[in-house]
Amino acid sequence: MAQQENINVVRKLFEYLNKNDAHQLNAFDALFSQDAKFIDPATAGIGSNLKALKQVESEYIKAFPNKRAHIDSLFASDDKVCVRWTASGSQKGSYRGMAPSNKNFTVSGISIYRLANGKIVEVTQIWDRMGLLEQLGELRQAQAA
Q1: Pick from 123, 120, 124, 112: nearest CA to 1
Q2: What is 111-133 written as a DSSP string?
Q3: Are 45 and 56 in contact (CB under 8 A)?
Q4: Which CATH number describes the domain made up of 3-92+99-135?
Q5: Of the candidates 81, 86, 100, the residue with the CA atom closest to the CA atom of residue 131
Q6: Which pLDDT tens digit goes with each residue over 51-98?
Q7: Would you list the domain boundaries of the chain?
Q8: d(Cα 80, Cα 95) in Å, to the nearest integer?
Q9: What is the per-residue pLDDT for 145?
Q10: Which of 101, 111, 122, 123 could make a disulfide contact with 37, Cβ separation 3.0–4.6 Å?
Q11: How many Å apart are CA 70 and CA 27, to the nearest integer?
C-alpha cells in the first residue's frame, strides 16, 4: 500500500477519535486488523489488541467527552506512519477511579502506526500521562530546586 494511502487511514482514525462517540468504535474494525497490537505504557495491563483499544477509547470518551486530538505533524516511511499529536479537553467523567474534576487539560504524544494491506496492525505510542494527572489535580507538580 502506498504511503499516502497509509496516511489517509491514520487521518481517518483521528476523524473517528474526534467524534467522541462510543457507538462509532465499531468503525475501528475497518481501520485495524482484528489482531492489531496496541502498545502504550500508560495503559499497561489493559491488553494489547483491538478490543483493548476500543475499551481504552470508550473510557476516554466517558471521562473526556469533549476531547479533541490534533495532528501536529505526520510523516510516513515504508509501512509506518508517525504522528506527533496534541489532545485537549476537560474531565467530565470518572477516569481510572478519579472523580470528575471539570478541569481542562492539554497533553501531547507520539504514535507510530504500522500498516499492512490497508489496515493498522500495530500502534506504539507514548504520551504525557503525568502531565494529564497534574492538570487534573491528581499529582502535584515538582518544585524547581
Answers
A1: 120
A2: EEEEEETTEEEEEEEEE-HHHHH
A3: no
A4: 3.10.450.50
A5: 86
A6: 888 988 999 999 999 999 999 999 999 999 999 999 999 999 999 889
A7: 3-92+99-135
A8: 31
A9: 46
A10: 122
A11: 19
Residue type, 106: T
Grid cell for residue 106: 492539554
DSSP 6-62: HHHHHHHHHHHHTT--GGGGGGHHHHEEEEEEEE-GGGTTS-SSHHHHHHHHHHHHH
All three cell numbers of 69: 486530538
DSSP 139: S
> Residue 50 is placed in which grid cell?
483491538
Would you state the cell numbers that stand for residue 28, as one nine-digit string? 475501528
Q: State the chain's mean pLDDT as an integer.
A: 91
Q: Cell numbers of 78, please? A: 515504508
